[in-house]
Design a protein that fits this description.
The complex is a heterodimer of chains A (405) and B (565). Chain A is an alpha+beta fold and 405 residues long. Chain A is built from eleven helices and twelve strands. In chain A, 43% of the residues lie in helices and 17% in strands. The longest helix of chain B is centred in the first third of the chain and has 35 residues. Chain B is globular. In chain B, 60% of the residues are buried. The chains are: A alpha+beta (405), B mainly alpha (565). Bound molecules: heme C (HEC) and copper (II) ion (CU) (2 copies).
Chain lengths: 405, 565
């Protein structure tokens, strides 16, 4: 009779354990349903796999969460000392079976998670045959993206001798030249290989919608791959601390709906470069707007919708160059702006440190900026005046450059 | 009032008539040093907390407002983290260890009392050095201080930062050597390793990590300082250095440092849960050994902090080790639950914080496993998800344990019990404030908010406002504790030597203990967690006779009546 009774309590315990186990699993699965709410839109093929993996982990984690919190709440209610009860609990030191179980089950769980994670990892890194390569560069505190343009795709009616030297070279050698954009453009279904580098500190290239992140490491290039599956515009974020403007270091990826739409954007960009405007002011505007140089990370210039705050505001810089800066440096306004680019530390705008990169006229040097670009930028910045009239006499510029270092 | 205390007990217990000024002097008494550590740490906790409040104030809006520029903001979180890690949690546990380890071993002091004092006195100058950075262009590269940001783009405060950490590292190493020698050599008759309190086990495991890992931090810091002041380029790729070198060496120390901050807390929790649920710790050996397993495996996981910078082929091995380390952590959590099961739980403030630890730490454990998975971490790395995870481990874990430990051992240190009503208020505010400060951060991070930004996408403003408001509650909660400490020190009632009726040796002497801790050589009870036996009740009753409680104390729930059993 005695053994019959303990038999039935044993059965009850087993039932309880099975019931609790099922309840935990169901609870975990219910919690895991929140997954889509916790992530940005699923922009890439990889995001589908990552989200599924996360959902699986959330189900298991949710069940463990419920188990532990449930055990705490149950113990707290069931085993609290009644008022006036000064006795001790049972003198139990452990239970080998139980301890084995709660070592083995977590071990199995992490094993499963490791294998599953490994599979996702391998499949998201697969190299696709028709990849498009895009070069991403981080500079404090802007992104720029460049694409290779094969010389063969340059229309035959361009005036080659008017083009920048590197494009002329590319055309003579039938190689390719880069064009730069401040946004990353691609189209649905096109696998992308990003080749990333930085011109200064570490940065991290992160597209939350693609679930992809890779650090940019000074002195190295790194790579990352993804395949967009949804058209639209999604944020690109810097995720590695890079200095004061780190939070501002954002850009966009624009995923075009199809290849035709993408190609029309692309040929527009190429045309801007191979049909350069004759007017240096327009060319300067184009160079600055292209994002080829990282100015927007540090400067505000409303005309180009720059909003950087590390350097002085460049609105009205033409007027200032002709007045206060001229007075302070004894230079003409065009000379001052020209030297601000090639020798920024020579004269520091009051209230600012020597943070601006020194741009250099020779290819192969860091922060290369061809003299032509410099001239165009000077021409454009000179027109940043209250009236819109240029504050400079550009005919002097060549002489200044020849005389300067 | 003091003069009324039982003269007989007085003769035995000789409560040392310490003056406040004694705590500001060089002393080699481990109890004074322990309290010096803790008081210094609490001071820096307030400093670090104030910085956190400024951070949360700034984050109320998606643009810069409280701070003038991003650099100022970067300084806030860099110093906040450095202070909280190196000047609050680590020295606070060093304080607990100093105060408790000799007492738990029935020893008169630490093995090297002078070295002990020296280790402590390195801390205040280090703290001052760190804060002085504000006058020379403060550190602003985060507590992780990755080059080249920390070498080529930072002010001299970064050098001071590195020097301060050097001093703190030396202090840690000296303290740890002292603990190891003390634990090895000064255990009393009848206490083998397997009879040591689990807190002592935890301090032993921690000290082993400190001694093995901290020299790597020192190495990395030395190279950083050389790069900054002597023109070397260990980390500068433009001159043949390597930016990732720092990350590897830094994390080789700093991942184990997580366990330096968490293991002692786990030790505290083991003590608290057993005493306040009046039940032996469940699976003593499993808990002790899992500390050692964590210490060991902890050295093989460092590059999980580098899943987005490490060479891709190397990421998988570190995922494997990082997953493995979840197992010993799980063992501890389940053993603690087993301890509660079938106990007679007393809802003291200390116990509430221990339970709070259990329920919050497990969240940090779960999010930790998620971060250990490479593909998931690629998305989550350097986002608010990580900020959340680390605070669940270090605040919901370590700091909850510290708070619980304060309530539990305050009577030991000062012979007075902290006010329990204020203690419960402190707990309630902390628990709620903590949860709503840190839980929503998971979501912000997953949705796309990176860490270490003052300017963020406006879509995250709502969630940040909730977080900031909760964090202010959390900040206020700390003042309830500070108020409680001050009021109790001034006007608290004296309690008996062993108000919780605990079996570990630190309670087998008067509270506070006399100059050399014990009158004669104490004999430990055979099992530090042997609750629920007649022998233990007899032992505790005898102890109470030997160190009778002051006459004027009203009976408390946890203390057995004077007579009747
Ligand atoms: C890393 C941040 C940074 C970048 C990138 C940067 N600058 Fe600057 N710039 C500064 C700072 C800081 C100053 C003020 C200190 C000085 O005069 O050198 C400055 C000053 C200037 C000035 C003088 C402004 C005045 O009010 O006199 C001009 C013009 C200028 N920058 C143009 C540019 C252009 C054009 C680019 C891109 C080709 C650029 N900067 C890129 C930080 C930057
Ligand atoms: Cu960046
Ligand atoms: Cu780690």
């Amino acid at each position: 009779m005695n053994s019959g009774k303990s038999q039935s309590t044993n059965n009850m315990t087993v039932l309880w354990i099975i019931g609790a186990f099922l309840a935990l699993i169901i609870g975990g699965v219910i919690i895991a349903q929140a997954t889509p709410l916790l992530f940005p839109p699923q922009g890439s093929a990889e995001s589908l796999q990552v989200d599924d993996l996360f959902k699986f982990m959330l189900a298991i984690g949710g069940a463990i969460f419920l188990l532990v919190q449930g055990a705490i709440v149950y113990s707290v209610i069931r085993f609290r000392a009644k008022p006036g009860d000064l006795s001790d609990g049972a003198n139990i030191h452990g239970n080998a079976t139980l301890e084995l179980v709660w070592t083995a089950i977590p071990a199995v769980i992490v094993l499963v998670l490791t294998v599953y994670s490994y599979q996702v990892w391998v499949s998201t890194r697969e190299i696709k045959p028709n990849e498009q390569t895009v070069y991403g560069r981080g500079a404090r505190f802007v992104w720029s993206f460049s694409y290779d343009v094969p010389a063969s795709s340059v229309p035959s009616d361009v005036e080659v001798d008017k083009l920048p030297p590197n494009i002329q070279d590319a055309i003579t050698n039938d190689s390719s030249f880069p064009i730069t954009s401040r946004e990353l453009h691609t189209f649905v279904g096109q696998p992308i290989k990003m080749v990333l580098d930085t011109s200064d500190t570490l940065h991290a290239f992160w597209i939350p919608a693609m679930r992809m992140k890779q650090d940019l490491i000074s002195g190295r290039t790194t790579e990352i791959r993804f395949t967009p599956i949804q058209a639209g515009e999604f944020p690109v974020v810097c995720a590695e601390l890079c200095g004061g403007g780190h939070g501002d270091m954002r850009a966009s990826i624009i995923v075009h709906a199809d290849e035709t739409e993408y190609l029309s954007w692309f040929s527009d960009q190429v045309n801007l470069v191979v049909y350069p405007p004759d007017d240096p002011v327009l060319r300067g505007e184009q160079v600055l707007a292209s994002g080829q140089y990282p100015c927007s990370g540090c400067h505000t210039l409303t005309a180009l919708s720059w909003a950087g705050i590390t350097g002085p505001n460049l609105n009205g810089i033409g007027d200032r160059a002709a007045t206060v800066r001229s007075a302070a440096t004894g230079e003409t306004p065009e000379e001052y702006i020209h030297r601000s680019l090639y020798h920024p530390a020579e004269y520091l705008v009051p209230g600012f440190g020597a943070l601006m990169p020194q741009f250099q006229p020779d290819a192969g040097q860091p922060n290369f900026m061809p003299v032509d670009d410099n001239k165009a930028i000077v021409a454009y910045l000179c027109t940043q005046t209250a009236t819109g009239e240029s504050a400079c006499d550009l005919s002097n510029l060549d002489a200044i450059i020849a005389a300067g270092d | 009032m003091a003069s009324i205390t039982a003269p007989l007990g007085q003769a035995q217990t000789t409560a040392p008539g310490l003056k406040v000024s004694d705590f500001f002097r060089w002393s080699v008494d481990h109890k004074i040093i322990g309290i010096q550590y803790m008081a210094t740490a609490i001071f820096f906790f307030i400093v670090g907390g104030a910085l956190a409040m400024l951070i949360r104030w700034e984050l109320l809006t998606p643009t810069l407002d409280l701070m003038q520029n991003g650099e100022q903001y970067n300084t806030l979180f860099s110093i906040h983290a450095t202070v909280m890690i190196f000047l609050w949690i680590i020295p606070m546990f060093a304080g607990f260890g100093n105060y408790l380890v000799p007492l738990m071993l029935g020893a008169k002091d630490m093995a090297f009392p002078w070295l002990n004092a020296f280790a402590f006195w390195l801390i205040p100058p280090a703290g001052i050095l760190l804060l002085l950075g504000w006058f020379v262009g403060p550190a602003q590269a985060g507590w992780t201080s990755y080059p080249p940001l920390s070498t080529l783009y930072s002010g001299d405060g970064q050098t001071l930062w590195a020097m301060a950490l050097h001093l703190l590292g030396i202090s840690s190493i000296l303290g740890a050597i002292n603990f190891i020698v003390t634990i090895k050599n000064m255990r009393p008759q009848g206490m083998g390793y397997w009879q040591m309190p689990l807190f002592v086990w935890a301090i032993l495991a921690t000290s082993i990590i400190v001694v093995l890992a901290t020299p790597f931090l020192a190495g990395a810091l030395t190279l950083l300082i050389l790069d900054r002041v002597a023109g070397t380029s260990f980390f500068d790729p433009a001159n043949g250095g390597d930016a990732l070198l720092w990350q590897n060496v830094f994390w080789f120390y700093s991942h184990p440092a997580v366990y330096i901050m968490v293991l002692p807390g786990m030790g505290v929790i083991s003590e608290l849960l057993s005493v306040h649920s009046r039940k032996p710790i469940f699976g003593y050996r499993a808990i002790a050994l899992s500390s050692m397993a964590i210490a060991l495996v902890g050295f093989t996981v460092w590059a999980h902090h580098m899943f987005t910078s490490l060479t891709p082929e190397l990421r998988i091995p570190f995922m494997v080790t990082s997953m493995i380390i979840a197992v010993p952590t799980g063992i501890k959590i389940f053993s603690w639950l087993g301890t509660l099961w079938g106990g007679k739980i007393r809802f003291t403030s200390a116990m509430l914080f221990a339970l709070g630890f259990l329920s919050m730490f497990v969240i940090g454990g779960i999010s930790g496993v998620m971060l250990g998975s490479v593909p998931v971490d690629i998305h989550l790395h350097d986002t608010y998800f990580v900020v959340s995870h680390l605070h669940f481990v270090l605040y919901g874990g370590s700091v909850f344990a510290i708070f619980g430990g304060i309530y539990h051992w305050f009577p030991k240190m000062f012979g007075k019990k902290l006010d329990e009503r204020l203690g419960k208020l402190h707990f309630a505010l902390t628990y709620v404030g903590f949860f709503f400060t840190f839980f929503p951060q998971h979501i912000a991070g997953m949705l796309g908010m990176p860490r270490r930004v003052a300017v963020y996408d406006p879509q995250f403003q709502q969630i940040n406002v909730i977080i900031s408001i909760a964090s202010f509650v959390l900040g206020i909660a700390t003042f309830v504790l500070l108020y409680n400490i001050v009021v109790t020190l001034i006007a608290g009632k004296r309690v008996g030597a062993n108000p919780w009726r605990a079996l570990t040796l630190e309670w087998a002497t008067s509270s506070p203990p006399p100059a050399y801790n014990f009158i004669g050589d104490p004999v430990p009870f055979e099992d530090p967690y042997g609750y629920g036996t007649e022998e233990s009740v007899a032992y505790l009753d005898a102890l109470e006779k030997r160190f009778p409680p002051p006459v004027d104390t009203s009976a408390t729930l946890t203390r057995a009546p004077q007579s009747g059993d």
